[in-house]
Amino acid sequence: MNDLMKSEFARKAIHLSNAIIPLSYHYFFSDKIDMIIVLASFLIFCFFIEVYRKNNHVLSRIFSNWFEFMMRDKEKKGELTGATWVFVGALFTILLVPDPFNIISLLFLSFGDTFAAIIGTRFPYIKLGRKTLSGSIAGFTACLTIGLAIDIPIAYEIIIIGAFMAMFVEILPLPVNDNVSIPIFSGLSMYYFSLII
Questions:
Q1: What is the pTM of this model?
Q2: In sequence order, what are the residues at sequence separation of 6 or more whose Cβ sits closer than 8 angstroms to the Cβ of residue 193?
Q3: Measured between alpha carbons, how far is 183 from 187 in angstroms, rounded to an integer?
Q4: Which of 5, 12, 75, 193 would be 114's cystine partner, CB 3.0–4.6 Å?
């Protein structure tokens, strides 16, 4: 396994663990305001780390020793890391997308985006810009699986629409980070289609 593959697997293993955010909201937080406060607190902490990781010798050394191998070039140069964008996406998804569609869409981000990247990197069949059809199919399948497996009463056709929108947005070269765009677009799509169907 080459260094690029190892880096991507490490990033996506962490990305998959982000499922704890929607699962915590679903199973442990009964109040949306409490969840928003928790996410906002983590986001403030992340921004603190982002600001000081380039200017503080101790933080810089920690990042260099433990995280730099999985960081993308633009992150090494000072742009926000994927971890911070996950909290940005989670906070705005909880704020903007009605329950329980926000929970499902954040799970789509964790599972769909992870499997799309891993399969797309390992089996890059049919390029779609910077993405691959093989990755998108894997991501769509992962979204469907988690959407149907979790005990949330959303019609399966709505889950199919949300899974498709999650992977459609993942393919598009949008200027918005996909940790933000995937859950918000897929969540709002499911919500609005649920009003129609």
A1: 0.90
A2: 158, 161
A3: 6
A4: 12
